[in-house]
Amino acid sequence: MKACIYPGSFDPITKGHMDIIDRACNLFPRVYVGVLNNTAKKNLFSVEERIEMIRRATSGMEEVEVVAFDGLLVELMKKLECKIIIRGLRTGTDLELEQQLSVINGKLFPGAETVALLSKPETYFISSSAVRELIEFRADISDYVPKEVADMINGGIAK
């Protein structure tokens, strides 16, 4: 079975992320959403909260499995026996970074491939950092995150 992994911090998961997950589900029978626990980064939401947001937002998607990880992505890929990384690209800057990471990941885990999906025009401007800023100022985030996520955040999990 060919599986793929879509890694990220997902702090929080956005409609742009959901579009990439949905499209990956059309391409692969198993889509792992890898939630990075990067202790060097200050996240607004805990790993557990981010995992719960993603699980709620993907509850109708049988192909999706949410997993947490820290350290190198390729170590998780080896454990999951998964060689395909899904990445969403919004800008040329994203492309340059993903090209670099693809080479490094391929050296660390021979056979690893990166599949890039271009963001759709209606979501390319959405970023988790912009959503976090809106949350900090208590602005409406409903246009940028799945309803389940907005409900969780508005229900009081925001810091």
From TrEMBL:
<feature type="binding site">
    <location>
        <position position="87"/>
    </location>
    <ligand>
        <name>substrate</name>
    </ligand>
</feature>
<keyword id="KW-0460">Magnesium</keyword>
<keyword id="KW-0963">Cytoplasm</keyword>
<feature type="binding site">
    <location>
        <begin position="88"/>
        <end position="90"/>
    </location>
    <ligand>
        <name>ATP</name>
    </ligand>
</feature>
<comment type="subunit">
    <text>Homohexamer.</text>
</comment>
<keyword id="KW-0808">Transferase</keyword>
<feature type="binding site">
    <location>
        <position position="73"/>
    </location>
    <ligand>
        <name>substrate</name>
    </ligand>
</feature>
<feature type="binding site">
    <location>
        <position position="98"/>
    </location>
    <ligand>
        <name>ATP</name>
    </ligand>
</feature>
<comment type="function">
    <text>Reversibly transfers an adenylyl group from ATP to 4'-phosphopantetheine, yielding dephospho-CoA (dPCoA) and pyrophosphate.</text>
</comment>
<feature type="site" description="Transition state stabilizer">
    <location>
        <position position="17"/>
    </location>
</feature>
<dbReference type="GO" id="GO:0004595">
    <property type="term" value="F:pantetheine-phosphate adenylyltransferase activity"/>
</dbReference>
<dbReference type="InterPro" id="IPR014729">
    <property type="entry name" value="Rossmann-like_a/b/a_fold"/>
</dbReference>
<keyword id="KW-0548">Nucleotidyltransferase</keyword>
<dbReference type="InterPro" id="IPR001980">
    <property type="entry name" value="PPAT"/>
</dbReference>
<keyword id="KW-0173">Coenzyme A biosynthesis</keyword>
<dbReference type="InterPro" id="IPR004821">
    <property type="entry name" value="Cyt_trans-like"/>
</dbReference>
<keyword id="KW-0067">ATP-binding</keyword>
<dbReference type="Pfam" id="PF01467">
    <property type="entry name" value="CTP_transf_like"/>
</dbReference>
<protein>
    <recommendedName>
        <fullName>Phosphopantetheine adenylyltransferase</fullName>
        <ecNumber>2.7.7.3</ecNumber>
    </recommendedName>
</protein>
<feature type="domain" description="Cytidyltransferase-like">
    <location>
        <begin position="5"/>
        <end position="133"/>
    </location>
</feature>
<keyword id="KW-0547">Nucleotide-binding</keyword>
<feature type="binding site">
    <location>
        <position position="9"/>
    </location>
    <ligand>
        <name>substrate</name>
    </ligand>
</feature>
<comment type="pathway">
    <text>Cofactor biosynthesis; coenzyme A biosynthesis; CoA from (R)-pantothenate: step 4/5.</text>
</comment>
<feature type="binding site">
    <location>
        <position position="41"/>
    </location>
    <ligand>
        <name>substrate</name>
    </ligand>
</feature>
<feature type="binding site">
    <location>
        <begin position="9"/>
        <end position="10"/>
    </location>
    <ligand>
        <name>ATP</name>
    </ligand>
</feature>
<comment type="similarity">
    <text>Belongs to the bacterial CoaD family.</text>
</comment>
<feature type="binding site">
    <location>
        <position position="17"/>
    </location>
    <ligand>
        <name>ATP</name>
    </ligand>
</feature>
<feature type="binding site">
    <location>
        <begin position="123"/>
        <end position="129"/>
    </location>
    <ligand>
        <name>ATP</name>
    </ligand>
</feature>
